[in-house]
Amino acid sequence: MNTETPSWTTLVDVDSLGEALGNEDLVLLDCRAVLTDPPAGARLFAEGHLPGAFHADLERDLSDMAQAGQGRHPWPRAEDFARTLARWGVTPETQVVAYDADNGMYAARAWCLLQMIGHERAAVLDGGLKAWLAAGLSIETDAPALRDDVAAYPGDFAHARLFDHSDVAAHVQHGGLLVDARAPERFRGDVEPIDKVAGHVPGAVNRPFAANLDADGRFKPRETLFAEFAELLGGHTPSDMVAMCGSGVTACHHLLAMAHAGLQGAKLYKGSWSGWIADPARPVATGNA
Question: Which residues are the active-site residues?
Fold first, then answer.
């Protein structure tokens, strides 16, 4: 075990995490989820997880399901998320590593929440549990006890980087870049397996979150991501870009990939498509951008 507290801010590989396992300033979050089966994350966690990991439930811990009109996974209030971090034992000095089954689509949501509340020592395990097991590393079924001796995390979300519906409408109207991370067939409106309306926000362009990954489920090299996002930005700065998806989850994957490539400052449309269509008066586009 490496006793020195690491300082990972985007991605960490399985070998580096394995060496740091057991560090008292390291907190692991198991973010596995199944959109169509919300209880599945807890079942998967109980069947086996990284040693010492807490279960970070998408709906209970990484969303505020009580909010109406804000999409399928509403962004939580800062004070609620701060208390959740305390229960996991997270302080400003803690290194947090989030992981999911493989491609980081759910772990990126936890990473984005942490970054937006000002916690820079947050990273995603590249390749997730699949890569961990492929490396022959161990898992366990015991769940750690939640903490009651840690103060609520001090901080507030970077609200200027968290867009609501009116922010997005104004952003697009003024020529801002809105990037939808859903699969192309959902963006075009050919199919819609989850939400009630098919299509996309008029003015948005499409880059599926899976475009950030190599064939093995790990993130592409940072140089490749830099080149691809630079082309997508097309002269815009990273802070001119707003990412969205179906419910504000996989859009976080773009923010993580960009940060890993050194492109900081992109924004997130919290409600995303499921929030946009909550008001039938909002316009809908179909087909290619």
Answer: 245
